[in-house]
Amino acid sequence: MRVTLTTLCLLVGLPCLLLCTVAVFLLSSETTGGDGRLVLEGREGYQQLGVSVAVPHPVSSSVEISQSPSIETRGKFQQNQVEEYCKRHGLHHSLFTLPDNATQRDLLFRHLIFDDKRRSLFCFVEKVGCTDMKRLMFVTAGVLPVETANQEWVDLKYLEKGLRKASLLNKTLTPDGRMERIRDYFKFMIVRNPLERLVSGYRNKIESPLIGTSTKFPNYVKREILQKYRPLDFMQWLNKGGSYNISISFPEFVQYIIDTKKELLNPHFKPMVDTCHPCRVKYHFYGNFKTYSRDARLIIDKLKTKPEYYPNRSLHRSGQETHSLLPQYYDQLTRGQRTALFRSIAEELEFYYSLYPAEKNSHVELLGVREPLSETVLVKSTTPG
Question: How many Cβ atoms are within 10 Å of 345's Cβ, its own excluded?
Answer without folding.
Answer: 22
